[in-house]
Design goal:
Structural class: alpha/beta
Number of helices: 14
Distance between the termini: 31 Å
Strand content: 5-15%
Largest sheet: 5 strands, parallel
Oligomer: single chain
Number of domains: 3
Number of strands: 11
Shape: flat
Radius of gyration: 27 Å
Length: 471
């Protein structure tokens, strides 16, 4: 399986709501109530300012808003740009739900139009302001808490990476004391933050004597006897113990726990579009592709006429590609070349390629030749967002050169993708460029969310106007 290392991971766009034992109980409590309180308070202020008093309908709406947004999302680790995007994105869906319920029940008639319109923009501004204020007071709140002492068992790659994360994380009260490991010092992954405290046999006494609260076991999965021995030795302590998976586990594609005939299992490689996620993905594909095709249909007819006038040959070029689960599909494109290659050997288009027609050069540079693929989306062969489909001939070459290449076919190919909006669009002359494209595709599989899809679609629009990598 290829180790994905994209320059800008999709995990920075996708919000994972996980419980991390950071020890910031006070900050966590404040963050849980921050968004609901900001929304309710902004509604009260709007009611008092426009209606002249706090009317009962506004009180009831405030309770509803508080209920559906509690607990709030932790955003202390976000950049300012991501904070603003995340607040606006979340508020869009909350406001849409409230408006739908208001119209469906007729309850919206109880509110002033001016008050509702004002609240629609005051509410997210209040949320953003509240989060910025929290960032200012967070250091003082942390001073009210005792440090949470921690140690890491296993001075290896993932242990060192965890130590770096702990030292670099803002607003954390975790105080890393050091590492325990039985290996010789020459075999250890030493860094500036890797203080070796002793061997595993000394671990229980150190934990009790130094009031250690968190123990992170960073031992390889192959070391099961050692792990069981350490756990047995630590039964006499009150420390919280967490297992830090090795690289085999952290490289999982949409890893989930489950059972097979009552036996606990963890998925190693699974499509993110199972269950409700699959319904969400397919519904968004159908709705968006229908809307886009309705808007661009006159433009499609103009392009078809221009292709026909520019050179002889069909308007639509059909090429075999690998789709979901590696099954062959036919992908539609506007013909941009004088030839229609689809054999065992296909040469990628290059700058100044003589095969490209005049209108074809314009279409390829602006990605307009891909527009017929919205029909492929409606057919269910493709998605709007996903790994770009490669020609079958190219797949057969790269699947033998790049480890994990075929994993990208666990989902439907897309018109645009995470690799394309991060600079890996168009020709891939070197193996390194194709490896980077595959790394981004696998990163997308690990971190998929509807939010990430919308982010990619919006970024694609900007890339099309700026990028000149496609020939």
């Amino acid at each position: 399986m290829a180790e994905a290392n994209p320059t800008f991971s999709a995990s920075t766009v996708t919000t994972r709501h996980t419980k991390e034992p950071l020890g910031n109980n006070m900050l966590s409590a404040v963050e849980a109530i921050l968004d609901p309180a900001a929304l309710a308070l902004s509604l009260w202020l709007v009611s008092a300012g426009i209606e002249g008093e706090l009317l009962p309908p506004y009180l009831i709406l405030a309770v509803i808003v508080f209920s559906i947004t509690f607990p709030g999302t932790s955003r202390l680790q976000f950049s300012i740009e991501r904070l603003i995007f995340d607040v606006l994105y979340s508020w869009f869906w909350v406001a849409l739900l409230l408006l739908f319920l208001g119209f469906a029940t007729g309850y919206i008639a109880e509110f002033s139009s001016q008050a509702l319109i004002t609240w629609l923009w005051v509410a997210p501004l209040g949320q953003i302001g509240a989060h910025l204020v929290l960032r200012g007071v967070a250091p003082y709140l942390l001073m009210l808490q005792e440090p949470q002492r921690a140690i890491i068992v296993g001075l290896n790659e993932q242990g060192a990476a965890l130590a770096s994360r702990i030292h670099e994380t803002r607003y954390s009260k975790i105080e890393l004391s050091g590492f325990f490991d039985d290996r010789n010092r020459s075999r250890l992954n030493r860094t500036e933050n890797s203080q070796l405290l002793g061997r595993l046999r000394e671990l229980p006494d150190f934990v009790k004597d130094n009031r250690i609260q968190f123990i992170y076991l960073s031992l390889p999965m192959a070391s099961q006897p050692r792990i069981l021995h350490v756990l047995d030795e630590l039964k006499d302590t009150t420390a919280s113990i967490y297992f830090v998976p090795d690289m085999f586990v952290t490289d999982l594609i949409q890893g989930r726990s489950g059972t097979v005939c009552g036996t606990p299992v963890i998925s190693v490689c699974e499509s993110p579009f199972t269950g409700s996620n699959g319904i969400i993905k397919r519904t968004s594909d159908i709705v968006l592709s229908l809307l886009i095709l309705a808007l661009i249909s006159p433009f499609l007819l103009l392009i078809a006429a221009a292709i026909k006038l520019d050179s002889s040959g069909p308007v639509i070029f059909k090429q075999r590609r690998y789709g979901l689960d590696g099954e062959e599909i036919l992908v539609y494109k506007f013909r941009s070349m004088r030839v229609c290659e689809d054999g065992e050997s296909i040469r990628q288009a290059q700058k100044g390629d003589a095969r490209i027609t005049r209108i074809g050069a314009f279409l390829r540079k602006n990605s307009l030749d891909e527009l017929p693929q919205f029909v492929n989306v409606l057919q269910g062969r493709m998605s709007i967002v996903g790994p770009r489909p490669h020609a079958v001939a190219h797949n057969e070459i790269y699947r033998n050169l790049i480890k994990g290449y075929m994993i990208r076919h666990k989902i439907k190919p897309g018109i645009t993708g995470w690799a394309q909006v991060n600079g890996y669009r168009g020709e891939t002359r070197t193996l390194d460029k194709m490896q980077a494209r595959i790394d981004h595709d696998l990163d997308y599989l690990r971190n998929w969310s509807l939010r990430l899809d919308l982010h990619i679609i919006l970024k694609t629009i900007m890339v099309v106007f700026k990028d000149r990598a496609a020939y």
